[in-house]
Amino acid sequence: MVRESVTEEGRKLRQGFFLTKQAGDKFAERGRAKGAEVTAREVPREIVIEAEYKITLPFVASLEARKVAAKIALTAIALQYGKDLALTSQFDPLRNASLAKALKDTRVWFFANEGFIGAHVRTAHQHSVMCYLSAGMRKGWSLVTLFGGITYIVGVTTDYAERFNPIVLADEMTLIGHVLSPATTFEDLEKIDDQWFPIMSEFCRQKGIVVERLGRADAGTAAS
Hints:
Elements: E1 2-6, E2 12-16, H1 21-33, E3 53-55, H2 63-81, H3 83-86, H4 92-96, E4 108-112, H5 114-117, E5 128-134, E6 139-146, E7 150-157, H6 170-179, E8 185-186, H7 189-206, E9 211-213, E10 221-223
Antiparallel strand pairs: 1-2, 3-10, 4-7, 4-8, 5-6, 6-7, 9-10
C-alpha cells in the first residue's frame, strides 16, 4: 500500500507499506532513482486492521439458496439410505429442484421455529440435516440447517412408495412434526433475523468482534 500526502511544510511525502522486504526495497530503489530522499522505518511487531462488514439476509430467500438446500437433502438421503433408493422416481421432484426456474418449483421453504432452534446447542459452524419419510402418509420431509440458524424445510417426495419406514430417532420425528405445525413461521426474513442473530452474536463475541444488529431483516448483521 502506498499513500501520498503533503507535510505542514508543503513537502510531498510518499509512504509505502509492503508485505515483503523485496517489495519494500523495490519501492525505495525507485524513489532514489527519481532523486527522492528515502527513509527506512522498522516494521511494527503488531498491526491492527479495523474493518467493518455486513451480512445481509435476502440470500436466504433466493432461488439459489433453496437449490442448495434441496441438493443437501437429496445427498443426505443417498448417504443415509443408499444411492439406489435416492435414484428412484419418487425423488424426481427433489432432483428437479436443482434445475428449477421458479421458487415454487423447488418445494423448499425457509422457516423460523423457537422449539426447533432450542432443541440443542447451536453454533455458527453447525450444519445439519434431519429426514423423515412416512410410508403411511406417502410423503417425506428434510430439515436443512446452515450456519446454526438458517433453516429450510424441503418436501423431498409426495409419493413415497416404500413398504418400510427408514429408522428415524423419535426426537427427530417429533421435531419435524413440530416444524410442520402452526408454531412455525414460514418465509419471514424478520423471524430468520431473530433466530440467527443470537447465534452469530455469540460467534462474534468469542472472536472478539463487536457486532450489532442493523434492525432490518433485509439488512442483517453488522460486525467490526
